TrEMBL record:
Name recorded for this polypeptide: Uncharacterized protein
Species assigned in the record: Desmophyllum pertusum
Superkingdom of origin organism: Eukaryota
Annotated spans, Disordered: 1-84
Biased composition (Low complexity): 10-31, 41-53
Length: 442
């Protein structure tokens, strides 16, 4: 009678293994499909060309389609692989006492609600026995064994040279683990089950069915942890964008832009070597621009924040305080478009798109004209051509600085996620000081 029970239990084991594997993502199936597609391609190429002409013309299309499908599957398999850092994090997560307690609490709350348990009275009775207070220590041993075996198998399969079949190898090894809980196995996993059966009468099929449910739940909980980590990282990358800048930084950004614009016009008007020659029409406009730019700069620096005074060695240029609200509007406009979601959608025109969104903002240009007319008294303050030219130059330089900061931050994030040394430019803001310092030390 006992032999019959063990035989039926082994049969149910194979059945439950098959049914359990259906609910998992099966990389072995995808790898087999890739191999079959590649073999179909090779057989198609080696087949003699005795078919009709219309079939010959259709063949390249099917080949490109199958190649595209195979490429997508390879990319999906690559994304599902864990990096070394993720493997280390997974192992530390599994071996953490706190995380093991979370896994136990999760399974305790879900085991009796499983359809494979509550639909059969004997399985429900054995599940209640597993979760009772007297068996708490044994239940903890069972879960710890599952978790640590998961980590061990993942580490072993991750080290396999065949990268394409690592996940498939893990899935096979993880499902084979269930056979260790069958009657007659003189190994540690079976000895834990024997502790639950002391003084109890449970059918082997019932025991194995409940253990297989626990086995499946452990997999799903740990797998969900991995997926949540990846999705959190991806979500953070997709939604990351520039934060609002402080007043001090806006002063420095705009001051650096004004300094460059003034320097360019002074050197061009003096016809210094390397500067473009001025036409008779352009020279008077540039003179008006220079006079207006100098009027937009701060003359008395006593009211600037102390942090800016510490940086100033005498030649730092700051905009007038009246420009600060306008600078905040420009910053908000740049931040609206400068984000990872737009970068992924428009990778080739991202920078141009961010600049154009600011330069073509008629509201910003109107505000700038009204502001300049209110605070400046030079002749160029009322000249639409002069003010429009300065608006485009100032806003473009300001936007470039913010976009450059965003791109450097993205490089840092990508290098960090890849586990590489961060070599991006982390000294962007201090470099803004170099314009005035270099001018002073010449």
């Amino acid at each position: 009678m006992a032999d019959r029970r063990e035989e039926s239990a082994s049969e149910s084991s194979s059945t439950s293994d098959d049914s359990s594997s259906e609910g998992f993502e099966s990389p072995s199936q995808s790898s087999e499909s890739e191999d079959s597609e590649e073999s179909n391609e090779s057989s198609t190429r080696s087949r003699p060309s005795t078919s009709k002409p219309q079939n010959v013309s259709k063949r390249p299309a099917s080949k490109s389609t199958s190649k595209g499908a195979a490429k997508k599957k390879r990319e999906a398999a690559k994304e599902s692989n864990l990096s070394e850092d993720q493997m280390e994090e997974l192992s530390s997560w599994i071996f953490s006492t706190e995380r093991s307690a979370e896994v136990e609490a999760n399974i305790r709350s879900r085991l009796l609600e499983s359809l494979r348990v509550k639909t059969v009275s004997e399985r429900q009775r054995f599940a209640n026995h597993l979760l009772c207070e007297t068996q708490k220590h044994n239940f903890q041993l069972l879960l710890v064994g599952f978790c640590r075996k998961f980590s061990t198998l993942a580490s072993e399969c991750f080290a396999l040279p065949d990268k394409a079949n690592r996940k498939a190898a893990f899935s096979v090894a993880w499902m084979k683990l269930l056979s260790n809980f069958q009657p007659g196995k003189a190994i540690q996993q079976r000895s834990i089950i024997e502790r639950f059966l002391v003084g109890q009468q449970f059918d082997a099929e019932v025991v194995h069915a409940v253990v297989s449910v626990v086995h499946e739940m452990v997999y799903h909980i740990i797998h969900a942890q991995i997926q949540s980590k990846k999705s959190a990282t991806t979500s953070e990358a997709r939604t990351s964008k520039l934060n609002p800048e402080t007043d001090d930084t806006l002063y420095r950004y705009c001051g650096a832009a004004l300094h460059r614009m003034i320097k360019l016009r002074k050197e061009t008007l003096k016809q210094k070597k390397g500067r473009a020659k001025l036409s008779s029409q352009r020279q008077p406009i540039m003179e008006l621009e220079l006079a207006l730019l100098e009027e937009l700069t701060m003359k008395d620096k006593s009211s600037v924040p102390q942090s800016l005074k510490n940086l100033d060695e005498g030649n730092l240029v700051f905009p007038r305080t009246e420009l600060l609200p306008f600078l905040k509007q420009v910053d908000n406009n740049v931040r609206e478009f400068t984000c990872d979601s737009n970068l992924s959608k428009y990778p080739t025109i991202f920078i141009d798109m961010c600049q154009t969104s600011v330069l073509n903002n008629e509201g910003l240009e109107v505000d700038f004209r009204l502001l300049v007319a209110a605070i400046a008294s030079t002749k160029g303050a009322t000249d639409s051509a002069v003010v429009s030219g300065l608006f485009k130059a100032l806003v473009s330089k300001f936007a470039n600085t913010r976009i450059n900061e965003f791109m450097n931050a993205k490089i840092e994030r990508d290098l960090k996620s890849a586990g590489k040394v961060v070599d991006a430019d982390e000294m962007l803001r201090p470099k803004l000081k170099s314009y005035s310092v270099s001018a002073k030390r010449k």
